[in-house]
Amino acid sequence: MTRDRRIRFNGFKCSTVAHTTAGLWRHPNSQSHRYKELSFWIELAQTLERGKFDSLFVADALGVLDVYRGSPEQTLREGLQTPTDDPLLAVSAMAAATKHLGFGITVASLYELPYLFARKMTTLDHLTDGRIGWNIVTSALDSAARNLGREDQIAHDERYAMTDAFMEVVYKLWEGSWQDDAVVHDRASGIYADPAKVHAIGHKGRYYSVPGIFLFQLPSPWWRHHRRKRIRPLRNRAKPLVRPAPASSSARTATSLPISMSSMAALATFSAI
Ligand SMILES: Cc1cc2nc3c(=O)[nH]c(=O)nc-3n(C[C@H](O)[C@H](O)[C@H](O)COP(=O)(O)O)c2cc1C
Asked: Is 135 strand, coil or helix?
């Protein structure tokens, strides 16, 4: 087996004024205050692509940093990770302005619904022509939990159990619902999709219940190009996260998406894009 000895370069950003670069926004040349402008993201993506980067990774958090002195005062004063916007929304524009750059975006599993989230990612898979990746985080901030309908942060192991359950549903939607040849798009007969080839996933679990079919059509570009690659283990665990499609479905077998359970793994995973 020949080893791929190419170096992969990844840009790292958070959609905020200051993340790992505290105070740098004060530099006269700093552009980080423009994180809310589409032109900022387009220029960033084009600069990375021109510089031969493989991907742009965008971190995210759903709560304010408020532990220091028990308030968000210092965080706000210094623009530390707050204010921050939704990093998924600039991806289509960046994809339209580049050809090869991959986009790894952080999304917290605890505050999404797998049925909706799977559609969002598949939409971006289509719109970016297979250049979207997902950094799966559970969200570790108490301030996020409090503002998203919980009294406190869910305990660590429970967060990961919920995320396993989340992953089970999204994989079922991606792997077990639409067969590759389900879309017919036959103008003459007037048939767009063959209902016999679109399967309800019939999922009922402790956290999520999704009886129906995946709402969007598959395969999307990433699936088409990479389905033979196997997913790498997300964490050191005995049980693999990827499960084969339900036996009743003749849809595709288990494959991989450019996703990971930790940001570090996400960076490595982008070599698949
Ligand atoms: C390089 C790196 C980047 C991370 N980026 C994010 C992020 O963008 N958003 C987030 O909520 N957590 C982020 N995390 C935190 C992880 O999701 C996780 O909470 C952390 O590694 C602690 O692991 P644990 O959840 O098992 O305690 C990052 C972790 C690492 C190592």
From this structure: strand
Q: Atom 28 (ligand 1): residue with closest C-alpha?
A: 263
CA distance 226 to 45: 23
117: helix, strand or coil: helix
**Lining residues, ligand 1, CB within 6 Å:** 59-61, 106, 108, 137-140, 156, 262-264
Which of ligand 1's atoms lies nearest the C-alpha of 267? 1
Q: What is the per-residue pLDDT across 166-176, written as a single tens digit (0 to 9) for each? A: 999 999 999 99
DSSP bridge partners of 203: 210
CB 18, CB 25: distance < 8 Å: yes
Residue 130 has pLDDT above 70, yes or no: yes
| Ligand 1 centroid to residue 167 C-alpha, Å | 17
Q: Which residues contact 43 (CB under 8 A, 6 or more apart)?
A: none
CATH of the structural domain 10-272, one choice from 3.30.565.10, 2.40.50.140, 3.40.50.10990, 3.20.20.30: 3.20.20.30
Q: Residue 237 pLDDT > 90, yes or no? A: no
**Pairing of the two strands 132-137 and 183-186:** unpaired
Report the alpha-carbon distance of residue 263 to residue 48 in Å, rounded. Answer: 19
For residues 28-65, b (16+ Cβ closer than 10 Å) or e, as one string? Answer: eeeebeebeeeebbbebbeebbeeebbbbbbbbbbbbb
pLDDT confidence band for 3 (50 / 70 / 90): confident
Q: Which helix (H) or strand (E) holds 59?
A: strand 55-59
